[in-house]
């Protein structure tokens, strides 16, 4: 075990070297990495839309790319700094990609990467589902050193010819198919026939040469106008037929409804007649029962009336008895009152008689006193007179 461990230690190359050599080695690696980062290649993809040609150039020197730095998508840049070949050339920046392959997006005013929410219709995004939204990373539209590719289009041609970009022209294999596009290409009016100006091409198949022309789309001809008119006429005919059928159907429906109504009315009349006949029979049968019931009811009512009359008679007799009793009570009360009055009168009469007797007695006594005392009676009278006068 110990021997194996020793062998492992001898495997490392820096085991026996000094510290200085180790430090020098690490500094060397760091310098190489920094230089490799600085020496970055940028690819310029130049397109010439007039000749339908593209060319890509790789540039190592950063100084050549300085005019492009801090420029936006859509800006025009002179191409003199790229090389002597490009003297007088002017390019427009159309896009690019960074080192990780994220595309530049117009309108994102940064020189960094940004995560945006994309939906249908936006650039740099193609939805896979209906109404799908997705957040994606996108590079800003400002040019920087972190780009690996920059897309340019030729705006102005310089003095020199650039091989592979301006010296050759690649024609389009297929011309425009749409009628409006052909008119636009050849400056044609609506009156001109477009079929003469269709761009075709020769094909060799099985040793035979053929000339092919594309079928023109959206071409307005007399045949097409006639077809359109016939389609419109058919549509109108179908509409009128449908209208007629609906009218007939409504007539039949109304007729059927009227028949149903008449039938229901007849059935209702029959039912009414049956009900009337049944009601008459029931009235006849029920008349006898009603008579019996009426007799019983009349008897019961008469009995009730007799009972009521008896009750009323009893009540009247009771009231009469009560009236007689009240009259007797009243007579007794009157007699008692008369007795009391007679007693009072007798008492008052006796009292009055006693008073009269007493008065008579007092008068007699006074007369007797006068007769006995005639002499002394005079001064008494005078005194009495004097007293009266004094008063």
What structural class should be given to the helix and strand makeup? alpha+beta
Question: How many alpha or pi helices?
Answer: 5
Major sheet summary line: 5 strands, mixed
Beta strands, count? 9
Sheet-strand content, in percent, reads 5-15%
The pLDDT mean sits at: 80
Uncertain segments of ≥5 residues (pLDDT<50)?
Answer: 1-12, 375-391
Order of helices and strands: HHEEEEEEEHEEHH
Cα-atom radius of gyration: 74 Å
Question: Helix content range of the residues, please?
Answer: 40-55%
Which outline best applies? elongated
Oligomer: single chain
Q: What is the terminal-to-terminal distance?
A: 179 Å
Whole-number total of structural domains? 4
| Cross-sheet strand order for the largest sheet | 2-1-7-4-3
Pfam families: Ribosomal_S6e
Region (Disordered): 267-391
Protein name: 40S ribosomal protein S6, putative
Family: Belongs to the eukaryotic ribosomal protein eS6 family.
Question: Which key terms come to mind for this protein?
Answer:
4 domains; 9 strands; coiled coil; 391 residues; Single alpha-helices involved in coiled-coils or other helix-helix interfaces
């Amino acid at each position: 075990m110990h021997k194996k461990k020793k062998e492992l230690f001898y495997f490392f190359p820096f085991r026996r070297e000094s510290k200085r050599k180790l430090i020098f080695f690490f500094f060397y690696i760091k310098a190489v990495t920094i230089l490799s980062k600085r020496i970055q290649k940028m690819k310029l993809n130049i397109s010439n839309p007039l000749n339908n040609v593209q060319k890509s150039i790789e540039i190592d020197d950063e100084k050549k790319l300085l005019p492009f730095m801090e420029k936006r998508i859509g800006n025009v840049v002179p191409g003199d700094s790229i090389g002597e070949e490009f003297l007088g050339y002017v390019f427009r920046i159309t896009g690019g990609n960074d080192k990780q392959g994220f595309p530049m997006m117009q309108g994102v005013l940064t020189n960094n990467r940004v995560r945006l929410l994309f939906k249908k219709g936006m650039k740099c995004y193609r939805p896979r589902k209906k109404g799908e939204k997705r957040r994606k990373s996108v590079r800003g539209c400002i040019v920087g050193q972190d780009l690996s590719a920059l897309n340019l289009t030729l705006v102005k041609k310089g003095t020199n010819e650039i091989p592979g970009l301006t010296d050759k022209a690649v024609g389009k294999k297929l011309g425009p198919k749409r009628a409006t596009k052909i008119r636009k290409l050849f400056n044609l009016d609506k009156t001109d026939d477009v079929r003469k100006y269709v761009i075709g091409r020769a094909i060799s198949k099985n040793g035979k040469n053929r000339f092919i022309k594309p079928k023109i789309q959206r071409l307005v001809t007399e045949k097409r106008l006639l077809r359109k008119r016939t389609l419109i006429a058919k549509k109108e005919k179908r509409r009128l037929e449908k209208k007629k059928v609906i009218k007939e159907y409504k007539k039949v429906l109304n007729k059927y409804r009227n028949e149903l109504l008449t039938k229901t009315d007849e059935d209702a009349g029959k039912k009414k007649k049956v009900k009337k006949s049944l009601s008459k029979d029931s009235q006849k049968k029920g008349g006898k029962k009603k008579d019996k019931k009426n007799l019983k009811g009349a008897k019961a009512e008469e009995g009730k009336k007799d009972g009521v009359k008896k009750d009323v008679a009893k009540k009247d007799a009771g009231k009469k008895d009560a009236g007689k009793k009240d009259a007797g009570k009243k007579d007794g009360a009157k007699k008692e009152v008369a007795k009391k009055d007679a007693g009072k009168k007798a008492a008052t009469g006796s009292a009055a008689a006693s008073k009269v007797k007493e008065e008579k007695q007092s008068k007699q006594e006074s007369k007797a006193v006068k007769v006995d005392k005639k002499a002394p009676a005079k001064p008494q009278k005078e005194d009495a007179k004097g007293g009266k006068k004094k008063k």
